[in-house]
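Researcher: Batch entry, complex prediction.
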Amino acid sequence: MELRVLGWKYKNIRGGLGDVTVALDSSPSRWTLIQMPNGTGKTTTMLLFRAVFAGEQLTPDEVLSLRASDSVMEGQFELRLSIDDKPYRIQLRLNFQNGTCEYWTARSELRGGGLEEGLLLPRELKRLLTRDFTRLFVFDGELAKEIRAVGKDRASNAIRTLYRLDQLEVLILQVDRLVKEQQEKSASISTATERKGVTRWRRALDAAKAKRAELSADLKTLQKKQKERDSRQRTVETLISGRIEQDHSLKQRKDVLVREKQDIERDLVERVHRAMGIVRTPAKLHGRVLQRLVALGNRLTHLKLPKTISAEFFKELAEQSHCVCGRAITQPVREAILVRADDYLAEDQILVINKMKLALRESSADENEFPEVAEQMTQLLRGLRKNRTAQDQLELERVEAGDTELEQLRAEANELSRDLEEMATSLERLTTKDAIRQRLLGATNETNLPLCEAEVKRCQEKHATATKTLQFVLQADVVKDLVSTTSDLTLQALRERLRVATNQKLERLVPSEPLRVARIGGALELESNGLTSKTGVSEGQSLSVAYAFLTSLLSEAPYKLPFIVDSPAVSLDTEVRREVGELIPELFDQMIMFVISSEREGFADAFYPRKDVRYITLWKDGGNVAHVRDGQRFFRSFHSREEAE
Amino acid sequence: MSFILHQGARTFFRAIIAPPKFLMFDAYYCCLMAGLDARLIGSADELEGEVFVNGYPDDFRAQAEIIAGLLLDAELDRKDIQEMDKSSIEREMVKLIDPTSATRLNIEGNKLLNLYAAAGFRMIQERMLPPANVDEFVVAYHAFWHRNNDQN
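Model: Structure tokens for the complex:
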């Protein structure tokens, strides 16, 4: 499905937009650059675009805030679209007297092209264009931060919506509804006694489901609290560092200790990696193990084990009428041979034991390796403890010198650590699927989500048996599992595909900075140098990541949507601007970019050599009346009042 | 091949299980090595009811023959089979080895491995505190082998 913007019209809208039309023609250029100085309604236009696409019902305050002046009673924003080459005209009519708004649509299907009340977009498109989703392609700068914010699930939800994975969730709900209908139908024709059983299990099922909802809510609350405490803990650590840094001499000592700690931790990571390699090799654990291995290998060799005669030899012999020595093999002899044949190794066992013997005999290890690395680690751990004590000492010195704020912060840090530890246990009790841990933590279906889920299932089955719909329910479960697995696997595959595509674009956008997406979970998780989680990201970097992700997301999607963006390059360095200006345009079939004159350098000038670009300038004159002018020459030479000043 | 932990192992090693740095199998293996070295087996009652992993993780596959050899060695010792008793040694091999298994051990060998790991866990639990991090565990595990065992 393809959606294009053909133009729009303002009537009595704030920012001097009394009666202004922007027409992009029935075959709009691939790229449209609209230069609008600050204060001429760029933000308002973006807001109106989002509202119309998502069919938002604006609040009275929002409606009134769009009013051009007190003298106007009505206003309108009209958007002209092409959806799969069919023209649509959507009007957002604003009533400034009572603060209401309504949508009207003119569609090509409608005879005469008249207007109908409501936002009448094709159903498929209407489902796609949710409020949140619209913000992806009518791009909102705030989104650049949100798609990286853990807990907001913006990145993940965008993928779900765009690739219609949410429809799979709808399918699961439909299956549930069918099951419910079947059960109700069945219950209505059962006897009174049976109905009693149905009611009892219906109640148990409802109670289990209510408990599940309660536990899910508890989980969300707990996770939220944990995130808050975690964030506060980091803040407190920063504040504690800040207190120390107020004292020059303490700061110097602290800097030395911090550097020392980093060195020790780096060394420890390297040593523990080496040590695990040693531990995972039995011969390196202790000289005694090595000796035993070699001795067993030698013993097997000395005893000529495994024997070369295999069990198969005797089994074959038992099938013969005469032995190799010429004696007849009678039935009792045959039976005795077969019984004893089992004491011999089979041919493939011989092969394996020979391999084992070789491995045993060839075992070698430096028996000092483990002690050496363990000693180095002991020293490093000692150093780390000393370092911790020394850092603690710095804080105590400052507290003793009368820094009560630091004292409070230290107390808070201790309390936060305790809280976080307790929360981790509560979370584990609530979520662990491990039966052993569940037992140890005393978890029941009243306190543990997986157990509660199992209880819901049990009640469902009992209820289904009572309503004689068990088979139906079991089949429904199979369908739901399949749909759910399909959804999970698809989301996983899409996330990975988008991650790779995003990183390829980031390599082009910010080649000097190893800024990459490590993982797409609910949010985009960044890494730098492939080592640590990247948290301190500048606005420009944040925007680069957002562009790289969104362009990957939208350009590979089954829907062709326009990309509408306000001030796309204002927070970027000139170099990155140029990259953005060169990279992004290739990825969309229609781009509408609202720019200010300062963005021409680096960004807009990347478009000048291109064909299929439309340049529009919209500005206000001294009488607060907006004007529109087409053409590259005017666009390039336009000087806004702010610039002149 | 089904590996089963001692009932207390999961809790004991809980703080340090963080794949790929330290796997649950690492915990099992460390216990197994201790049990095999001491020639001690635990009882089936001490084991968890469920298998925690099927087959060796990648890092251990190359050690399959060695671990099978260590099990054979421990069994020969535990059963006091004389060094030159060729037929008894061969019988033990027949009892334990399955060439079609990735671990080279059959069900009986697998069962014994779990029991040796259970006994090893008891020894570790007696001589160590539950580790808070892998670094400290590695140092303590070294001490377990080199201090405690060297005195034996």
